[in-house]
Amino acid sequence: MQQKTLKSFGKTTVWSPAPRSIVLSLALLFLPVLALAHPIEGVWVGTAMQTIGGDNEGTVQVTNPRILIYTKGFFSWTFENNDRVAVQGTATDRQIADALRGLNVAAGTYMIVGDQIKYIRHVTGNPNGQLPQNQPFFRTIRTLTATRLETSVTNDAGVTTILRYRRAE
């Protein structure tokens, strides 16, 4: 009598040795990408400011330095709003105060919540910005690419200011 045997085609499971090695290889390839910093982190230089509504509606190209820096959870910005005149010799207290009055400076911590940047200003050129009733300060992210950042804020009068930046690094 002849005996019949059924041949098995082997195990077909998702986690067999071949697919496991492929998954491991892909994981090792993409792990560095997952560890990269958030795309907002870096140094940004202001390029334009647009105002929508109010008396100063329009877009102006930024000619004075505007530097915005994001690191892991910390930020710093320094915006020179006015043209400053270089002082010959030693500056008086009044000249120093006038020069500093045109600066908008702040530093502290930030977090991104949805499309909002939530700033907690620990240091500001305007001490009122540090007061609890003025914290946190929010800006809306309108555009964020590898080379371009646009944020906006609308004040109580309904005037929206859009700040445009290019990546410096």
Mean pLDDT figure: 79
Number of domains: 1
Cα(first) to Cα(last) distance is 82 Å
Q: For this structure, what is the CATH class? A: Mainly Beta
The assigned structural class equals alpha+beta
As a percent range, the share of helical residues equals: 10-25%
Order of helices and strands: HEEEEHEEEEE
Beta strand count: 9
Largest sheet, in brief, is: 8 strands, antiparallel, barrel
Low-confidence stretches: 26-37
Structural descriptors:
Lipocalin, 9 strands, about 170 residues
Explain what you see.
- Helices cover 16% and strands 41% of the residues.
- It is α+β, with helices and mostly antiparallel strands and 169 residues long.
- It has one domain (42-167): Lipocalin (Beta Barrel), CATH 2.40.128.
- An eight-stranded antiparallel β-barrel has the order 1-3-4-5-6-7-8-9.
- Strand 1 and strand 2 form a beta hairpin.
- The radius of gyration is 27 Å and the shape is globular.
- The protein starts with 16 loop residues before the first helix and ends with a strand.
- Mean pLDDT is 79; it is low at 26-37.
Protein topology:
Elements: H1 17-34, E1 42-52, E2 58-61, E3 66-70, E4 74-80, H2 93-101, E5 103-113, E6 116-124, E7 137-144, E8 148-154, E9 160-167
Antiparallel strand pairs: 1-2, 1-3, 1-9, 3-4, 4-5, 5-6, 6-7, 7-8, 8-9
Question: Outline of this structure?
Answer:
The protein is an alpha+beta fold. It has two helices and nine strands. An eight-stranded antiparallel barrel has the order 1-3-4-5-6-7-8-9.
